[in-house]
Known about the structure:
The protein contains 5 helices and 31 strands. The chain is of the alpha+beta class. Helix 1 (2-18) runs antiparallel to helix 5.
Amino acid sequence: xxxxxxxxxxxxxxxxxxxxxxxxxxxxxxxxxxxxxxxxxxxxxxxxxxxxxxxxxxxxxxxxxxxxxxxxxxxxxxxxxxxxxxxxxxxxxxxxxxxxxxxxxxxxxxxxxxxxxxxxxxxxxxxxxxxxxxxxxxxxxxxxxxxxxxxxxxxxxxxxxxxxxxxxxxxxxxxxxxxxxxxxxxxxxxxxxxxxxxxxxxxxxxxxxxxxxxxxxxxxxxxxxxxxxxxxxxxxxxxxxxxxxxxxxxxxxxxxxxxxxxxxxxxxxxxxxxxxxxxxxxxxxxxxxxxxxxxxxxxxxxxxxxxxxxxxxxxxxxxxxxxxxxxxxxxxxxxxxxxxxxxxxxxxxxxxxxxxxxxxxxxxxxxxxxxxxxxxxxxxxxxxxxxxxxxxxxxxxxxxxxxxxxxxxxxxxxxxxxxxxxxxxxxxxxxxxxxxxxxxxxxxxxxxxxxxxxxxxxxxxxxxxxxxxxxxxxxxxxxxxxxxxxxxxx
Length: 490
């Protein structure tokens, strides 16, 4: 019984050594207040720039959300969703009436059509000798003009002639790109009903799935054909909305090698664009940008990679980008090289190398600008507001959850329509020392600490087990000796 109690106590002690402590806001060096919209259950937040500058983990494993009572909130972390804006444009349509012969079949029977070289419709007329006995209106040929690739026609709206009080007819709409092949895309009933108070009830449009076409043909299936005063097409276009961007400008220091400058970089920044800010006008600077790696690391992405032998041991320079930056004055204005796109790169130091023909000194040392797309945090606004965003802990493990667990059952359009929270100013937490710039993710260090605690627990357990066995053997030997003595007495 005594041995069981000791073993259980040792196991509990070992588990306590290995288990991480409770997550608290005061365990993190930095925090930012979060203003969440009232009444919103699931909220989105663009991760602030300050998080990337002060986080201790390349994977943002040390990011936390807490409520006013210090309770940790569930959140998902991911790339911002692709968004687009729909624009609607009204396009006046050119109308060409077709009289005499009905428009039947795949083409226009007995009709002459003249077009310009650019496809613009010039005239529609009835051929001599083929006109019907009556010159009544049979159909309308419509020219919508040449549309840009991003525009699609989604509807046509009709304006009746003046003093049209009551009208009703069923029409068929066909479309074409060459005035030869026609595709029927919809029918509708057009009507205008007016009362004695000049109030009008109208169904004056036909809608359909957005599609691209140049010409349209309108014919009547029921009712009297009518020469409309105007027809307007509604064009829709989708424009991609660029995700929010963040950037940081870094100052360099001379490197150990000649013509080399180094830029200390926050490790959490997932840089996907890079640029140099030159200090002097009329400067052209060919450079190579890269990072120092250990010889056991094989990079996955290279841009304009120069072949370079690697040392057998130690660090080597890995060139990622070779290009020319410039700042040139022209007619009172400046022409400056812009940001260059690159695969996402995370490092704690960028290295700039130049040739001896283009030396860089302290007087003309350029600044390095990195750009990236911040991640989006989707969190459940539970608990007691106000909330705070905390970060800056080398030993923190990742707690971000899949989006399906934070916002279960949400459709893509519902996620796009989530209300947005905003972050307040950056504040250091008192009594918490700001972590030193991380050279790698904090999770391996935490794992090593847990293994050390477990090994220590096993060692302590083994020591006490050995002591217990020794004690049991001693007690057993003493009992045997007493039995022998009693037998001798008898």
